[in-house]
Design a protein that fits this description.
This protein is of the alpha/beta class. It has two domains: 243 residues, Alpha-Beta Barrel (TIM Barrel); 77 residues. The protein has 14 helices and eleven strands. Strands 3, 4, 5, 6, 7, 8, 9, 10 and 11 form a nine-stranded parallel sheet that branches.
């Protein structure tokens, strides 16, 4: 699969852009674990052109994580064009436009999936961004605003006509947010459209290797994007891509998983500071499957998620790995 001149190989698996999740450290780890491409957290066009430091930091790309797309969002043409040029100067392989974020503070203001209610403006922004930069431009969006307005098949053609070089479809409407099941049949219809010639990337509910394989083999997509299942579990890319390419799921030991989480914590602290770095990483700790279904774990879990000192958090993880999990595994 190629996006412009960016060759991602056969049936690539990408790390989805996720706010407060896909920082440079996490992206690099996921790349090392088998992700074929990474995406930054989404970047506000308005904040970027105002040179807000918290936003400009999101443009940093580690050499080892490439190829990487910088994802931008906004609701006005001129700020989006200017933001695209600033983002291009940061050196990504691709600029991705977010027309899919469903959260109220974004969609409610007409950006993200809010654009699904103003398709002419969406197309105007897309065309202007494509014309403004030299790197390939892609779009990530949803099926439509709600179940009565699933417009993605027709919209995909319109976006292609604007010059985008790949389309990612999250198989939900904006009204669904992240509830219910992703509609992969609809994603498959987008891909099967004979008038669509750009790569189609499917996104939604890919949580394990068998689901990844099914996405490619049953629905025919060119690529698959994995999001929430990777939070607190970057090793999922090694497991899934191994099954996809060899027929056997790679074994990742508990020790390897703990080492990856500890690395995330350490690099988060080094990148920000101890207190805010630990706050940032709590979302990964809370979501990690390492801590699911452990009997009588509530008190330890609360302590882990309340710890605000690196030494305290490391001590809790040591106790979980060396004492709690071995006892559970003996049961």
């Amino acid at each position: 699969m190629k996006i412009g001149n960016v060759d991602l190989g056969d049936r690539p698996v990408m790390l989805a852009p996720m706010e407060d999740v896909t920082d440079a450290s996490f992206r690099l780890i996921c790349k090392e674990q088998g992700a074929d491409m990474t995406y930054t957290e989404f970047v506000s066009a308005d904040a970027l052109i105002r040179n807000i430091s918290a936003t400009t930091r999101k443009l940093h790309i580690e050499p080892g994580e490439r190829p990487t797309a910088i994802q931008i969002y906004g609701r006005e043409v001129e700020p989006m064009v200017e933001a695209a040029r600033i983002a291009e100067a940061a050196g990504p392989e691709i600029i991705d436009i977010n027309f899919g974020c469903p959260v109220k503070k974004v969609a409610g203001k007409g950006a993200g999936s809010g654009m699904l209610r103003d398709v002419p403006r969406m197309l105007q922004i897309t065309r202007a961004v494509v014309d403004a930069v030299k790197v390939p431009v892609t779009v990530k969006t949803r099926l439509g605003w709600d179940c009565e307005h699933k417009i993605i098949v027709e919209l995909a053609e319109q976006l292609q006509d604007c010059g985008i070089q790949a389309l990612t479809v999250h198989g939900r409407t904006r009204s669904q947010m992240y509830t219910g099941q992703a509609d992969w049949e609809m994603i498959g219809r987008v891909k099967a459209n004979p008038r669509l010639h750009i790569p189609v990337i499917g996104n939604g509910d890919i949580t394990d290797g068998p689901k990844l394989v099914e996405a490619f083999e049953r629905y025919g997509v060119d690529g698959v994007m994995v999001g929430r299942a990777s939070i607190g579990a970057p090793w999922i890319f090694r497991q899934m891509t191994s099954l996809l390419r060899t027929g056997q799921e790679a074994e990742v030991t508990t020790a390897e998983k703990f080492a990856l989480l500890r690395r995330q914590i350490r690099e988060s602290v080094e990148r920000i500071d101890e207190y805010r770095g630990i706050l940032h990483i709590r979302r990964h700790l809370a979501a990690s499957p390492l801590f699911k279904n452990i009997p009588d774990f509530r008190a330890t879990r609360i302590a882990m998620l309340k710890a605000d000192k690196l030494a305290d958090l490391e001590a809790i993880l040591d106790d979980i790995e060396q004492n709690i999990l071995p006892r559970v595994n003996k049961l």
